[in-house]
Amino acid sequence: MALLARPLESVQNYVDFFTAQPLPVLKRTVRDLAVLREDMETVSGKRVAAVVLGDPLMTMKLLTYLQTHRRQAQNHDITTIDRAIMMMGLEPFFRLFGDLPTVEDTLAGHPQALIGVLKVIGRARRAAHYARDWAVVRHDLDVDEITVAALLVEATEIVCWVFAPTLTERVYAMQRADRTLRSTAAQTAVFGTTARDIQQALVRAWKLPELLIELMDDSKVDHPRVRNVLLATDFARHVAHGWDDAALPDDLAAIENLIRISREQLLHRLGAPPDAQARFLGTDDQG
């Protein structure tokens, strides 16, 4: 599997490079699917879907496969993992995804990049959890679509860590050296473009369902479903820095406005620690 050591000339060059590589998945995903395969006669599609949804890379792999191998009679996109597995059937699923490259093997020579990508994947999983919870509160039409979209918002950052570890490490090093440096500025300095620009082209090259692309589109943030997805992504990114991150007050206000619950209820749902609850509720000086 080829890894990118130097920046490329254009967004299209990055898209061509990334789409030419087989997407690896987490080693745990390979192991968990192997266990379920042994029990294929009795295992449920929901159990398989739960393993897939634990891994943004496996989720992308499955959705991309279905979109590029859709039947002529299929007149609608498959936007959730449950439906994707139901459409394929368990036996074809396990046959197609039985021998997959892993992230851990791909980045064996780049331990810092492996740590970096695992952090972003963990953040994506938390974003999907938050997004799903808020979608339930909002009585969303399809919480599974919201969950998948939130899991995939940072797909390009994950792919950059996997296939361009040296360049991505450089971006993070620049931001560590200058805390005021915006990620888009660091990405442009290193890659010559931003993750957002690559993502907009990459999701179309992967032929992800149009609905999921729209749910990840920050130009459509006025729509409540899109706001649900992107707020979950922002909150997961900010809270990963700690509950004292400067962006959290604005995040909390926006989330309250989205799901219409009190600050106290929201902090409880988010699992905020007692000191953060006291600070955000204005009770930290009461004894």
UniProtKB/TrEMBL annotation:
Q: What is an example of a Pfam family matching this protein?
A: HDOD
Coiled coil start-end: none
Task: State the SUPFAM superfamilies in the record.
Answer: HD-domain/PDEase-like (SSF109604)
Residue intervals of the HDOD domain: 23-222
- What is the name of the protein in this document? HDOD domain-containing protein
Q: Taxonomic lineage of this organism?
A: Bacteria, Pseudomonadati, Pseudomonadota, Betaproteobacteria, Rhodocyclales
